[in-house]
Amino acid sequence: MADHTATPPRGPAAAPPSPRAAGPDAPSGGRPAGAGRVALLVGGLVLLAAALAAVSVLSVCFGARSVPFATVVDALTAYDPADTDQTVVRSLRVPRTLVGVLAGVALGLAGTVMQGVTRNPLADPGILGINAGAALLIVFAINVLGIGSLSGYVWFGFAGAAVATFTVYGIAAMGRDGATPVRLALSGAAVTAALNSVTTAILLTDVEAFDAFRFWQVGALAGRGMDVALPLVPFIAAGALLALLSGRLLNALALGDDIAAGLGQRVGASRIVAGTAVVLLCGAATAAAGPIAFIGLVIPHMARAITGPDYRWVLPYSALLAPVLLLGADVLGRIIAHPSEVQVGVVTAAIGAPVFVALIRRRRLAEL
Amino acid sequence: MADVLTAENADAARVGAAKRALRDARRRRSARSRTVTLLLALAGCGAFLAALCVGEYTVSVPEVLASLAGYGDDGTDFIVLGLRLPRALTGVLVGVAFGLSGAIFQRMLHNPLASPDIIGISFGASAAAVVAITVFGLGGAVVSGLAFGGALACAVGVYLLAWRRGVGGYRLVLVGVGVGALLSSTISYLLSRADIYAAQQAMVWLTGSLNGVGWPQALVPAAALAVLLPLTAALARPLRGLQFGDDSARGLGVLVEPSRFALVVVGVALTAVATAAAGPLAFVAFLADPIARRLTGGTALAPPALVGALVVLVADFTAQHLMGGVQFPAGVVTGAVGAPYLLWLMARSSRIGRSG
Q1: Is A360 inside any structural domain?
Q2: DSSP secondary structure letter of residue A364
Q3: How close, in Å, is residue A174 to chain B by CA atoms?
């Protein structure tokens, strides 16, 4: 991957006006290297897809119990419930891998959409209040309703995320200009502040809730079974579709609200489409895997550093980069602390942050 | 001839009227800013007095004033001057420091999300403190000292990592985000590994609190602010320039890189001092400037400082006395006090908020 990041021409980042203007019918026209560049970028996507497949295989193969590869294949093709090794693969590792891929795709896309809509490089999906809303309702479910199992409070997390996001959006949209990026960011951060206060107050008075919460908060894939993974599929699929189709719309929004409107985009409607995608994606992912803040925040910047600012490329790159990083981190977390493990949220940041900083230092940044 | 003259006169009159209107608008705005600042200061004094009066043993306002003036009896003196004054004073100092540092970062980087909470400096302090509490079982002043060191180390690290023939504002923010994410996940990890009681203790520290603050703890931020406040005032002009972006600032005669360096140093020092004194009181730095700007419409630095102080005082008062018998750390309430107010201001005003 490192080789690949170096290859795209520096053009898009070095000359800001031209790629921005690459609106409706861009990459093939304009620059002479157009066709070659598209081929390169498509090649990169294929490479990333291959990397994702490879990481998924690793994720199914590695774990606390060492299972021979043949047994893994058997578990997937000719399942024998009597074999404990096969049961481990089928009931623990496969669902966990699935949650990893789903959450990765979701967080990567949601982060990109979020940064595009708010035109703010600091916006992660959490900025819409998603993490805070999910956290509050999960803590509420544990503290007041006494729900102890993950599959029980996933739905509370999802509901909390959705309600928080609608609140944030509603408040931001109240002014005359509608939900401008700055208003969205501010109202999101303020709602987060208010919700976190309540969450903290509950956590400080309820040791048990705190004990359960701290393991959700760190961000982990361990212990997520099919009962957690499968219900998320439709939400994430719908959200991913919306997000992947919103590339052109985000390109227009990147030019500013007025120009976007001039290009015929319905700015308010675009924001609502994008917001819906973010809620579906990020609400589901956060409820299942905890707030893995890093992915949503940083993956879009990594993708942008590779592709330049065109969202029609940034989106698919984010969608593939994120699960590769997430699952890779998860596998690594199982290997470094064998036979115990380090939660994926921690490993993700530990690997991702240095890469991210290096990337920022090395390239001329494609600013939002 | 006469027609021309009257036309010229009319033009002159129109220009004059426009000039007057502009001047009036400016005057109204600065008058409003002054009024709001005054009101904020008065509200702050009120909250300060309330903090001195109310507690397990209520002291009346005249008694408090007598004590402050040096004519109180020993019992009241002990309660007011010995116990409550250092706490209230620390609240003010910490609030001012957070409010100013938030305003500095948000304006310098022209990004309302760029408070020191978010670009990683607070995480440096927090990570150091959580390591001290959960791994080494330390407490008290040692934790504060380590938090101070953590904030500075983190800031130096971020600045150096962002340095590439000058620190672009954008790169500084992104490096801060990366480092902050790394540190915050380290904190989550330590919390999930630690013994539950140590973790809870760390959680209280992470929330931010003025509990148990006495004169020794109050004097450190007082001394630091005595140095930092004049520096901040001196940097107000370059800050106003940088607010419009690097190029405009250069056009206005601001030395961009040196000014930014000085502002980062002052902002970091303010954050580090405040965090060491009271923990990273959630969101004060983030909330103070947006609230102040919506109230005043101007860019003076006194209003965010006053808003910060007011939020901390009100939050500490609420956390101590209004939470139904449980003493919460102040940080639980700062978000609940400031955020709804900011949201209300945002919902009400439709004009402001286009630019950060």
Answers
A1: no
A2: P
A3: 6
- Rounded CA gap, B195 and B247, in Å? 52
- Number of domains chain A is built from: 1
Q: Which domain holds residue A135?
A: 2-13+26-347
Let me know how long chain B is: 356
Q: How far apart are CA B246 and CA B229, in angstroms?
A: 24
Render pLDDT for B75-119 as a digit per residue (tens, 0 to 9).
Answer: 888 888 888 999 999 999 999 999 999 999 888 887 777 777 766
Alpha carbon separation from B198 to A212, B129, B156, B192 (Å, rounded): 15, 12, 29, 11
Whether residue A363 lies inside any domain: the answer is: no
Query: CB count, 10 Å around CB of A262?
Result: 11
Neighbours of A10 (CB within 10 A): 11
3-state SS class at B60: coil
**Of A362, A286, A298, A278, nearest in space to B181 by CA:** A298
Please indicate if any CB of chain A lies within 8 Å of the CB of B211: no
Answer yes or no: are the C-beta atoms of B273 and B221 closer than 8 Å.
Answer: yes
AA identity, residue B315 = A
Q: Which of residues 290-319 of A touch B (CB under 8 A)?
A: 293-294, 297-298, 301
Burial class (CB in 10 A: 0-12, 13-18, 19+), B340: middle
If DSSP states are collapsed to H, E and C, what string results for B175-187?
Answer: HHHHHHHHHHHHH
Residue A18 lies in a domain: no
- Residues B154-166 have pLDDT tens digits of 988 888 888 877 6
User: Which CATH number goes with the domain that contains A124?
Assistant: 1.10.3470.10
* Token pair listed for A120: 């703010």
Phi/psi region, residue B115 (left: phi>0; alpha: psi -120 to 50; beta: rest), is beta
DSSP A255: T
Distance of CA A165 to the CA centre of its chain: 16
* Check whether domain B2-348 has CATH 1.10.3470.10, yes or no: yes
Closest to B173 (Cα-Cα) out of B82, B70, B264: B264
Q: Mind listing the pLDDT tens digit for each residue in A104-162?
A: 999 999 999 988 888 877 777 667 788 889 889 988 888 888 776 777 778 888 899 88
Domain boundaries along the sequence of chain B: 2-348
> CB B5: neighbour CB atoms within 10 A?
9
**Measured between CA atoms, how close is B43 to chain A, in angstroms?**
22
Two tokens at B314? 């009100």
pLDDT in tens, B118-134: 667 888 999 999 999 99
CB contact under 8 A, A200 and B339: no
Chain B, nearest residue to A197 by Cα: B332
d(CA B85, CA A150): 47
Q: What is the mean pLDDT of residues A50-64?
A: 88
Give the closest of B174, B203, B332 to A121, CB-based: B174
Q: What span, in angstroms and rounded, lies between the C-alpha atoms of A234 and A284? A: 10
Cα four-point dihedral sign A254, A255, A256, A261: negative
Q: Residue B351: is it exposed, middle or buried by C-beta count within 10 angstroms (0-12/13-18/19+)?
A: exposed
Cα dist. B131→B136, B170, B184 in Å?
7, 30, 12
Instruction: Kindly report, residue by residue over A249-268, the tens digit of the pLDDT.
Output: 888 888 887 888 888 778 88
